[in-house]
Structures are given as C-alpha cells and as structure tokens.
Amino acid sequence: MIHSTAEVSDDAVVGEGVSIWQLAHVREGATIGSETIIGRGAYIGPGVVIGVRCKVQNYALVYEPAVLGDGVFIGPAVVLTNDTRPRAVNPDGSLKSGSDWTAVGVRVAAGASIGANATCVAPVRIGRWAMVAAGSVVVSDVPDFALVAGNPARRIGWVGRTGERLIEDGPARYTSPMTHHSYRVTSDGVLVEDQQ
After folding, report:
1. Which residue range forms the structural domain that includes residue 191?
2. Which residues on adjacent β-strands are paired with residue 14?
C-alpha cells in the first residue's frame, strides 16, 4: 500500500506487503524490505537499506547511507544523520554541493528500537535488540541489548528481546521478567543470551 501523496522513486526497491503512508518520501536506490511500514512524512534517503518487518514512524528522517536490520523500530521524529562536519558553505563562501563531503551512515542492527525524537549522530552502530530512549542523542556505538538514555546517551541498563528491562540476579547475570530467559555479561563487557 503506497498512499497517493507519498513520493516513491521509480528506482527504489519496495518489498511485498510494505505500507508507505501520507507525504512520505522514499528516494532513488532505497531498498525497503517486505512487510515494513513507513509512516506519514518520513524521509528515506538515497540508497538507504531497510530490512523486513521494520517500522519507521511519522516524520522520521533516515539519511543515506543508513542501514537498518530486520525488525528495527524507528520512533516518531527520529533523525539518523550522515555528516560529521555539517556546513552550508565552503570556507570561501561558496554553497556546498554533494561532492564537497562524504556521507557516513548509522547502522541499526536487527531488533533494535530508537525512541521518539532521538538523534543518532553518524557514524554509530546501534546493536541488536538495543533500545535508545526517547529524546536521546547517540554519539557512540550502542552494544547489543543495551538500554541507553540522555545527551550524550549512556548505558543505564540492559533490555531483552521483548524490550523489558532485565533484572540482575547474580554477578554478571540477568533475567527477563517476562520470558525468564537468562543473559550474562562476558569478560569483555558484552551481554549475551544463554543458550536454551
């Protein structure tokens, strides 16, 4: 379903079952995986890759060359940037063009969620099943399963696959209060799921 007011480039690749709502703009070369939802007024830049079953909420701005894994949630008005030194003009006062800078992207791994009005300043990677709190400003990589908040965003806890905050139940051991699935922190500080 592509709403009549959405602008979708003929060069974009749109998978089966995708919904693109009012006033959304999908640029040339973008790839949108099957069963993904692109909300009202969202912007998807040239060459952006979005996995299957993602949700990009209203007025989110996903600038190239961002890559979103499967099952990623991008909240309303989220911004994924692409310029480490933004300027409108060159030192001589001439207007900058696309050839005057190199785009860098934000990578969001499978299952991760980015809350409303958060900004991810490229280049950063948001880990698998991580959660970025609403309004946060992410300026460094976010580990898998991390819950981050603030400006700059810092880890304030760990979350499971359902998004619930994990409960510490021993040294470097955590449990999901919903699924009772267990997690552990490795010697290098990475949270991993125990095998079931």
Report:
1. 160-196
2. 32
Residue 101 DSSP label: S
Predicted confidence band at 20 (pLDDT cuts at 50, 70, 90)?
very high
Is 124 within the bounds of a domain?
A: yes
Mean pLDDT of 167-186: 91
Tens-digit pLDDT profile for residues 97-107: 878 888 899 99
Contact 79, 119 (CB under 8 A): yes
Residues near 126 by Cβ (< 8 Å), separated by ≥ 6? 106, 107, 108, 109, 112, 114, 120, 132, 138, 141, 142
**pTM of the predicted model as reported, rounded to 2 decimal places:** 0.92
Residue 8 amino acid letter? V
Cα 75 to Cα 60, 100, 118, 141, 157, distances in angstroms: 7, 31, 8, 19, 20
Query: What is the per-residue DSSP string for 2-66?
Result: B-TT-EE-TT-EE-TT-EE-TT-EE-TT-EE-TT-EE-TT-EE-TT-EE-TT-EE-TT-EE-TT-
- Please name the residues in contact with 94: beta carbons below 8 A apart, sequence gap of 6 or more: none
Same domain (yes/no): 145, 165: no
Q: Residue 52: what pLDDT?
A: 98
Assess whether 39 and 100 both reside in one domain: yes
Encode pLDDT of 123-164 as tens digits.
999 999 999 999 999 999 999 999 999 999 999 999 999 999
